[in-house]
Amino acid sequence: MSAPLRGALLIAGTTSDAGKSVVVAGICRMLARRGVRVAPFKAQNMSNNSVVTLDGGEIGRAQALQARACGLEPSVRFNPVLLKPGSDRRSQLVVRGAAVGTVGARDYFTRRQELREVVAAELASLRDEFDVVICEGAGSPAEINLRATDLANMGLARAADLPVLVVGDIDRGGVLAHLFGTVAVLEPEDQQLISGFLINKFRGDVSLLQPGLDQLRALTGRPTLGVLPFAEDLWLDAEDSLGTLSGAPVGRPGPPHGTDWLTVAAVRLPRISNSTDIEALACEPGVSVRWADGPHQLATADLVIVPGSKATISDLNWLRANGIADALHARAVAGRPVLGICGGYQMLGNRIVDGVEHTAAAGRAEVAESAPCVVDGLGLLDLDIEFADPKIARQVSGSAGADPLHGYEIHHGRVTRTADPAWLTIDGEPEGSARTAIWGTHVHGLLESDEFRRTWLTEVAAVAGRTGFTVAPDTSVAAVRSAQLDLLADLIEKHVDLAALDQLIRDGATTDIPVIRTSR
User: Which residues form the CobQ/CobB/MinD/ParA nucleotide binding domain (predicted)?
Assistant: First the structure.
């Protein structure tokens, strides 16, 4: 009998969105199905897609998915440092789940040692508790201009002596050059930990790619452990929507149960947060969801969703500048459905008092981008919002009529006045707003509550005049997510050299990996 598998591995990528998150989730699910006690880890994430853990902390959405792949509840231990961009130059810094202020690149540089200690302590704790820890890098290790402050790529690998697999997305083109170049630009000590490659999103005949993989091994001395095929059914819990094209569909909905489709336009705000809220709708047969960034894309939609935002007032100004605000007003006058979630909910109200964002931006070069202290909302709902500390971050449960619901809140904004009927009951208190065909709530993840979603979609279809739309009786978002995780694990098991993967986790990087010499 072989010894139990113990060790750790870092999955890096040639670029952002190369597939690191899904590869980590797939490896975690595959190991968990084998009975291995496995946990995910991402030292530092930069994303406005976050979730709230049971203890009220924030982590990246991808790490929550990876935790579920392991059969674990999401924990701040799995993502101890989270950066949430609020502008091109400043990000909110979340450490061990709690917001501790805003930072720019230079501020972050001064805090690197403090954050390294946090990261090292959490990873060491996980390695003590679990058999295997699968770590995810951030961006690309080839960003050598950031090497001095790196917490998640080669800085982590060197500190914890982790073997590294580099994932490349072949669907983007140039993947062999990306893989070779990623290794070549690293300093020799970092190169020694790069132990192999994975190809992601391959379409076609692998035998045609094999000569390139053979040459890549000859050039670098490193094997390719697997070629993962493109899988169109993998789309839930996307790490980020910023690369999504306007008009692009969300998911792959099945045909309608009735005679009508229900069409949804989700506004792609510049600083969108928790964009995954809308994905639950795309799980429903007969519900077609697309991203929109112009008023013309809202005209024919049965439902428009204004999602969350990390820069509420800045994004509100964007709505006005590009005509979407006028389109939303026209919908309200016509009694056509609109849903606002968190920041989107706040934009639908009468007034926003933004003391938190205005104070944070004062005295910096970005002050011109900062919102004024008080601005008018769109006036589609009769409520006032005031931003204040501390940030609210909590899991919630409640109901809408007879339907139970669960979700989480992440926001600074408080409702200081409302004249509209409450939409929901959350933890025994009224929450949200419902006004004719306009709904709003601060609760993220609300649409994953299956019974509530079915009831509400039926109401939306009736208001929109889609009398032939019939909601599916048995769609389960949790089941769809679980099936996608199993599909990821199946792909890993079928297309990756598992013996080589196990050996790498157990034994770490070998000492005889060649260094690629380049003139510097």
Answer: 10-235
Which candidate in 411, 412, 444, 495 is catalytic?
A: 444
One-letter amino acid at 394 equals R
Could you confirm whether 444 is annotated as catalytic?
Answer: yes
Report helix, strand or coil for 113.
helix
342, 411, 412, 442: which is the annotated catalytic residue? Answer: 342
Task: Provide the terminal-to-terminal Cα distance of the chain, rounded to the nearest Å.
Answer: 49
Phi–psi pair at 216, nearest 5 degrees = -60, -40
pLDDT tens for 122-181 read 999 999 999 999 999 999 999 999 898 899 999 999 999 999 999 999 998 899 999 999
| 460: three-class secondary structure by DSSP | helix
DSSP-assigned letters across all residues of 15-37: STTSSHHHHHHHHHHHHHHTT--
Number of structural domains in the chain: 2
Residues 90, 64, single domain; the answer is: yes
In this prediction the pTM is 0.91
The label of the residue with tokens 């995810």 reads 136
Closest Cα to residue 306, out of 245, 348, 250?
Answer: 348
Residues 434, 415: Cα–Cα separation, whole Å: 14
DSSP assignment string, 253-288: PPPPSSS--EEEEEE--TTEE-GGGGHHHHTSTTEE
Q: Which domain holds residue 46?
A: 7-234+481-507
User: Is 257 an annotated catalytic residue?
Assistant: no
- Look up residue 243 and give its DSSP letter: T
Tell me how far apart the alpha carbons of residues 297 and 328 are, in angstroms, rounded to a whole number: 11
Q: Is-cis flag, bond preceding 390, omega within 30? A: yes
* CA dist 446 → 299, 334, 427, 439, 476 (Å): 25, 26, 14, 12, 13
User: Strand pairing of 424-426 and 383-400?
Assistant: antiparallel
